[in-house]
Amino acid sequence: MSRLRVQGQFLRRNDFPRDPCRDADRERWAHGGMMMRRVRVIGIGAGNPEHLTMEAVNALNSCDALFLPRKGGEKDFLVRLREQICGRYITRKDPKLVHFDMPVRRKDSNYPAAVDDWHLAIAGIYEQLLAEEMGPEGTAGVLVWGDPMLYDSTIRIMEHLRDRGRIAFDYDVIPGISSLQVLCARHRIPLNRIGQPVEITTGRRLAQGWTTGSADVAVMLDGVQAYEGAGEPDAQIFWGAYLGTEMEILVSGRLGDVAAEISRLRQAARAKHGWIMDTYLIRRPASGLTAQDETVPLNREDAA
Is 85 strand, coil or helix? Predict the structure, then answer.
């Protein structure tokens, strides 16, 4: 008998909870059998097609349709890059690429509410695509930059879609190489220092003040150039833009010495390409830091 894993436990088909008022449950149990669409949330790396893992390649080839968002303007480069990845790795004939326009998040003083409404709007689009572009047992792919778990909303949107209860589907998540991983690799640095924590945050948060609990901070989204006001001129910054792409830019050095140059490069790159995606790591000076660990593992196996 087939089983479905739900929140860490397996349910037999006949034990699956049903609600006759939910469209998804009526569809799931149509004709007395399990009918379940599947969505594969696939991390595709930071921009280099060679970042794809074998698991991601296999996931792409398992999909009947791939949903590709359009954001318009210069960001159509990202659509073309997704299409390039599909053309390079999908071996099945005539893969179905479904383009859709990504809604724009409204500017609102209530940021969490604006983001939540935006996610609900995207969930509604995916719901329509699942209903119109594939059968009740089809598999759809959603290609996500970097790794879906790190500063990406696709997983939350999938949960919104499940909560709506109108389409029967399940989903899985394929990890990918994040821009933070590429940043550290390009600068040839480990993410963490021995015995020290790392804070991962946004420029919006960093602009409100650098917490004293972490000597290292990684910033994933920065539209305000928060590094300029970090108040740590002697800190080291490792910065990268368009990581993994042919447009990649790298800068590192003492923050007080290179902050203005980074800002100049950001402005020039945005003017040239119409958009920018950058990531950086700032490290306070090592003097005064005290290792919190008594032992230093040589590798992950030694730490186990």
Answer: helix
The pLDDT of residue 304:
43
Q: Going from the first residue of the chain to its last (304 residues), give the mean pLDDT of each consecutive group of 10, the final group possibly shorter.
A: 43 42 49 73 95 98 95 78 95 90 86 90 96 92 96 95 93 98 98 93 91 87 93 96 96 98 97 94 80 43 43
Consecutive H or E run containing 142: strand 139-144
Same fold, 36-177 and 180-285: no
Residue 288, number of CB atoms within 10 A of its CB = 7
For residue 297, the model assigns a pLDDT of 41
Residues 19, 23, 25, 29: what is their CA dihedral angle, to the nearest 10 degrees? 130
Give the start-to-end residue ranges of the domains of the chain. 36-177, 180-285
Cα separation, 233 vs 284, in Å, equals: 9
Are the C-beta atoms of 252 and 238 separated by less than 8 Å? yes
Class of 36-177 in CATH: alpha beta
Fold of the 180-285 domain: 3.30.950
CA 302 to chain centre: 30
Contact, 47 vs 243, CB < 8 A? yes
**Helix axes 54-61 and 76-89, enclosed angle (nearest 10):** 90
pLDDT in the model for residue 285: 92
pTM over 0.85: no
Q: In what order do the strands lie in the sheet with 216-219?
A: 198-201, 216-219, 278-283, 236-241, 249-254
Quick one: pLDDT at residue 112? 86
Q: What is the pLDDT of residue 106?
A: 85
Residues in the chain: 304
For the purposes of burial, counting CB atoms within 10 Å of the CB of 196, is it exposed (0-12), middle (13-18) or buried (19 or more)? Answer: middle
